[in-house]
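Hey, weird one. I pasted the Solute carrier family 66 member 3 sequence into the form twice and got a warning about non-standard characters only the second time. First submission, copied straight from the form history:
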Amino acid sequence: MEAALLGLCNWSTLGVCAALKLPQISAVLAARNARGLSLPSLLLELAGFLVFLRYQCYYGYPPLTYLEYPILIAQDVILLFCIFHFNGNVKQAMPYVAALASSWFVLALQKWIIDLAMQE
């Protein structure tokens, strides 16, 4: 009974996370405008998700404890491309994507780097 309830909670969390940003993405696509989206706040959210996901992977936590973060990161990347697409220049998104992708590897170079990134 407990295992079934825990499984239901895990899968419902994944379902909610998968649908969390879909209304925002569909509204941006329907309006064909990124007005109201803040690039700095989106980048901050992406960085936070990335650091937390890397920390969880680095220390070997079970995947079910962090499986929703890749879904949230993918949705934020879609919103990032929407911002640049509707502002007229998708190529400007590439440095941000490159910085986020390279930070995945930089965070795990030394243990102190990932620990420092997770401090308050």
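That's the output from the first submission. The warning seems to come from a hidden character in my clipboard, not from the data itself. The CA atoms of residues 22 and 75 lie 8 Å apart.
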